[in-house]
Amino acid sequence: MATYGLPVEPIEIGDRPQFVFDNYVIDNHWAIKYKREAVRQVFHQATKHPGNPIFGQGDQPSFNWVIRDEEDGLFKMWYQLNDQVAGDKAKGRKYNTHIAYAQSKDGIRWEKPDLGLFKAYKKKPNNIVLGWDEYPNAQTCTPCILEVPEADSQDYRFLMMYRAKGAGIGPISGIRLIGSNDGIHWDFKSDKRLAHLHSDHFNTVVFDPNRKEYVMYCRPKHIYRTFRGEMVDTGASRRVARMASKSLWTDWLETVEPQTLLIPDNQDSETHFNFYYGMAVRYHGGIYWGFIEPFRMNDYIYTELAVSRDGIHFQRMPGRPKIVEWGEEGSWDDTMIFMSPSWVEVGDEWWLYYSGWDGPHGTTERTGAYGMAKIRKEGFCGMKGPKSGGVLCSRKIKWSAGKLLVNAVATGGKMQVRISDEKRKPLEGFNYDDCEVFSGDSTSHEIKWKSESIESLKGQVIRLEFYLQEAELFTFKGE
Q: Which of 282, 287, 290 is closest to 23 using CA atoms?
């Protein structure tokens, strides 16, 4: 596969799910009645849990990262607790921030263990997991649990990237990385500053297996909003920037500096969302999934999806739909929504966690809490065939697996798959009439042919041609 741009054909897909909505693995698509109908990209919003908010009342929480631990089965959350400063003499600081920990057996009912690790925090339960005795003014924020190759784990089960801030903490200020074996007790012997940046947002790092490099997405203020020198206008810092490094445990700024990646466009400005609060990113299935946050200064914020194959050129969805809608006026999440890309796979669903607020960004007269929303596994976006049918034709694929599995919805319609050669000549026994009709709803349905098996094509270069009649395809893969 190419490191960026178009893929190298034939594509070797292995057993990784292949998303079809961005045409990376799709060579062409068309409707059978192409004058009146079309195969269309369909975006799906996540559905909010009816019991929201599920957690965080009283913590005024914002950025969070959630995993489901394979060892004990628990849902584990690291989140930014915002402790509001009382009185009018806070000198502009509205919150003290701390990284706290919570856990859950079912992902809905959460508990905050009273850990008591940092005595300076007096509230109960004391579930703070990061702090320094030698720097009592230090604050921590924006936790992100990293997925890295084992060689870079330094033998820790968990790696967390976070930001340290506060008055008089110069040696430790900035974006940092630390390891832990239980997710609660973090080993400060491993603690490393990755970048001395004032990036007061959800900073994320992902590993790109194609380039064999780490990519950081941040919102640095190293040349904008610095309030130093004689700058007439310090400029807008609320944008999305990117850095890349071959090494993880190093000072990135010694070799690279942030490059602006995304700034608002004309469509954003039509609704006065003239800033991006930031963009948290996750790498999954060959795609960079960006959770971008358009920001209308200084009130509304929402989260939408932006995707990329190379980590540089991001595509936003047609119409710019929100991943979840704001709540109704007067509800707990009616003004600001910060959604984490740390979805958790639960059966055939992805569970997403987000911070919602009932007031604008520019005031402390607001309350925050966490909600959860569900979406079909791999189901943010698919390609749907029309009433009279349509076709998705793949690029050239070197088939290296056994079964062909699809994540698709064909209730009320049907799906069939034809296998052809590089020039689109159907292979004997693998035409549409040979394929068993699928008219169900499954995230992992095996496509079969009446007399032939796709396993016999192992090592051959083929094309997969998906016939979709009132059916939607999300992903396909070999197994």
A: 287
What are the tokens at 375?
Answer: 């979406």
- Tell me, rounded to whole angstroms, the distance of Cα 207 from its chain centroid: 13
Architecture of domain 18-44+381-478 in this structure: Sandwich (2.60)
Give the architecture-level CATH label for domain 47-376: 5 Propeller (2.115)
Angle 278-146-343 (CA atoms, 0-180°, nearest 5)?
70
- CA 133 to CA 112: how far, in whole Å? 22
Exposure string for 437-459, b = 16+ CB within 10 A, e = fewer: ebeebebbbebebeebebeebee
Q: Looking at the whole model, is its pTM more than 0.70?
A: yes
Instruction: Tell which residue, 86, 83, 123, 110, has the closest CA to residue 99.
Output: 83
Domain ranges of the chain: 18-44+381-478, 47-376
Q: What is the dihedral of CA 424, 426, 430, 436, to 10 degrees?
A: 80
Dig out the tokens for 11 from the structure. Answer: 């594509």
SS (H, E, C) 267-292: HHHCCCCCEEEEEEEEEECCEEEEEE
Between 202-211, 221-230, 310-319, the lowest mean confidence (pLDDT) is in 221-230
Contact 242, 261 (CB under 8 A): yes
Mean pLDDT (whole number) for 437-462: 97
* Measured distance between the N- and C-terminal CA atoms of the chain, rounded to whole angstroms: 19
